[in-house]
Amino acid sequence: MRLKTIFATLLLLSSITFVQSQSKDILAKSAMLNADESFGKGEYKECLDYLLDAATNLGKTNSRIQYLKVKALMALGNSDQYNKTLWLQADTALNKFFQVTPENGYDQEKYDEMLMAVSKIKKYIAASAEAASSLNHEMILVQGGTFQMGSNESDDEKPIHPVTLGNFYIGKTEVPQKLWLFVMGNNPSRFKDCDNCPVENVSWNDVQDFIQKLNQKTGKTYRLPTEAEWEYAARGGNKSRGYTYSGSNTIDEVAWYRENSGSKTHAVGQKQPNELGIFDMTGNVWEWCSDWYKAEYYAICPASNPKGPSSGSNRVLRGGSWINFAQYCRASFRFFNLPDYRFYFLGFRLVLVP
After folding, report:
1. Where are the alpha helices (DSSP H) in 171-226?
2. Which CATH class is domain 2-133?
3. Is the pLDDT of residue 18 over 50?
């Protein structure tokens, strides 16, 4: 009697296990159908969730799951090409596909597709790593101090007045195209095919969008320089030698401008730096500042850390560009434009808040 009871119990447990197994198979098949449907709709994240459910219910992965997982991750990567994490995940999924798939044990066309994916994934892993390194945009510490801002060359540069600034960090170079591309996923520049040329054809408003995304990616706080910060850095800060241009009285030594640019921008950092080791604050591209522009502002400018007028129609631009004559590239020269204006001589430089 006891043996019959034990046998009946074992039979019942076996039946339960079989039913559970059948149930998980059904759930796995349902999850795969949902994964296929989601992939077809372009819902790649949902597809990955369903594939996880399928593998969990099966208690293992298989060729079909891994094939679709690679495809979904690559599709996500195509819309975010410099996301290294996605491409590494795709690489892991691809390796797993080959582990669970005999060479002649799966649809040959799909197997060949996975073979072709190897080089593409490796390419984007390398590209994303290189792009990520561009986030380490080199900044120069500018020690605070007092300087004489303005000149007597033009009415809006008068009067010459003392300005005192605290410490700040400013970009060693103008923002290059490769950094913009990594952050924004596009390159608006006219002079392309030059990763280290300054990004141009960007408005003041465009730059604000870029800075917001850059801050999100890095966890740091970047912004545009104030006009006073820009001029202080261009003049060489507390190491200034009083040059007309940023780093020299001879413009050809420090700038790409109308007479030597060949009517285009050039890679940043090719000319001589100024006293602080900062490049291209004269020429190459005009640089947006954070301030509103007002011609008479210097007459009422605060003596300590001025930030420009509280309102206005135009934003300040500084430094001259590849298209300008030398007189417009002086360290004290002021220019301006509407905040939504774009042109292929307009770029910018960053300040980092410590």
Report:
1. 177-184, 204-218
2. mainly alpha
3. no
